[in-house]
Amino acid sequence: MADAATPETLARTLTEHADVVRSAWLEAAAHELHGRTSRGELEREQGEILDALLDGLRSGGVSLSDAAFDQLRGILADVSSARARLGFTPRETAIGVFALKEGLYRLATATDAGTDVTPLLRLVDQLGLFTFETFAAAREAIIAEQSEQLLELSTPVVKLWEGIVAVPLVGTLDSARTQVVMEKLLNTLVDTGSEHAIIDITGVPAVDTQVAQHLLKTVVAARLMGAECTISGIRPQIAQTIVALGIEFGDIRTRASLADALVDALRAGRDSRRTGLPA
Question: Which residues belong to any copy of the STAS domain (predicted)?
């Protein structure tokens, strides 16, 4: 009759047949991940996972959510995050854990293994699901990080002249991007001591009420920093849309092109130097 499948019994059985389990597990994973990771790296990861699994079982762990498996969950999370950053697919990440079943099947057929390994198979299912979940979370975090980096790259602040900076916008302007534009512009105004800022919307495909509100907020923020702001790139189609929507830019300077806005800012700067007053 098979021994009672207590965590301690399972740990003892796994320890006694560790070589059999490791060998079958490694072969199955190496076959599935051929060309994606080295055999040595797989062997190292599997060794850490198996050691943590054994420690958890010896501590009486039954479910992966038990405190006894804290270390194991940490290792799985690290492996999943590393795989996500290396561009592994969800299947490739999970298969490295699910391949442990091959070792357990080999263990179940061993003539001297008198223990039911069904609880271990259920535990491996939990390991695989946890790995998949942490992989998905890590990939979402990477995507968010990359999106933020793209936002930074897509909103450069350029110094055109002494005291004049410009933000050439390309693409759709939404709330998230407006926040990035505002922060970068304000920081640049402080760093350079510029008195004029030009927001060029030549590359913005369309201007609606929401986009106009975003632009107005940025202009107001720049003015609070003591800088005068000009919106350039007002094409005929955009001008017609602004009028049709009843959007009011108030006393904000607008120009048809970036060149016109630069000339205007240079003229204002020259006049301010003559009078000794801010532009």
Answer: 154-265
What are the sequence ranges of the domains in the chain?
A: 7-148, 158-275
Sign of CA dihedral 203, 167, 234, 221: positive
DSSP letter at 232 equals E
Nearest to 157 by CA among 212, 225, 210: 225
Report yes or no on whether pTM surpasses 0.90: no
Asked: is 158-275 a CATH 3.10.450.710 domain? The reply is: no
pLDDT tens per residue, range 121-134: 999 999 999 999 99
- Residue 87: half-sphere exposure toward Cβ, Cα within 13 Å: 1
- Which CATH architecture does the domain made up of 7-148 adopt? Orthogonal Bundle (1.10)
Closest listed residue to residue 98, CA positions, set 120, 81, 77: 120
